[in-house]
Amino acid sequence: MKKSDIQLFIASLIAISFLFVAQTTSAQSANQKIIYKAYINSDMTSWANTIHSIETNTPPASIDQKLELINFYYGYVGYLIGQKKNGLAKKEISAAQKIINDVLKNSPNNATAMAFKGSFKGFEMSINKLKSISLGSESLSCISKAYNTDPRNVQAVTDKANALFQAPALFGGDKNEAIKVYLKAINLIESSKSADQNWLYLHILITLGKIYEKQNNLSAAKMIYEKALHKEPAFRLVKENLYPALLSKIKK
């Protein structure tokens, strides 16, 4: 084979590979964009419909696709628990846990999946108070394992921050340390250039903003909410609720 033929062959392989990756990324991004739009518009009906459409019509095959779907469940279940819709939350937790266990069966050291396992144990704990001690212990153990496996994994870092903030001091909770870890998660997302159309990034920002408000650090909360609006001016929760309420509080 001539050198020119070899070069053409290699170029063709690269082009085919690029096309395949682009098609896969495009398909994944389509769902991510729908979820992101649902998040900034507080449209949880669209969020739920997207999850169930994926499960029914395009079940995830690769680990990345499964982790993406778990990410969607993660946000939706958190919303359901916040709305006290525990019956529906229990059903969605079970569906997500099946996917998590499948990922960990094939990739036992996957930090993202391990962090999700801990998070969903935490969700279970929220709706099953009788098992709060055992589920809480399992949740913290999984999150710690994920964080220790990869301390730069965004999901592991985020869930570590959540655990530090929510757990009682007796079980290792530390609200000031939680703030530092939330800031680490934000920095990791920003430094990896993955903040655009990332619902979790915006969610971490408003979580931190609310914490600052509770601590009466209103200037820090204002800075965080403005950061969220700079990234996404159409973010309804901040634009119509959190930010105006904070400004009113500052003026008093």
TrEMBL record:
Residues 1-27 form the signal peptide. The keyword Disulfide bond does not apply. It comes from the Bacteria. Pfam families: TPR_8 (PF13181). Keywords: Signal, TPR repeat. TPR repeats lie at residues 202-235. InterPro entries: TPR-like_helical_dom_sf (IPR011990), TPR_rpt (IPR019734). The keyword Protease does not apply. This is Uncharacterized protein.
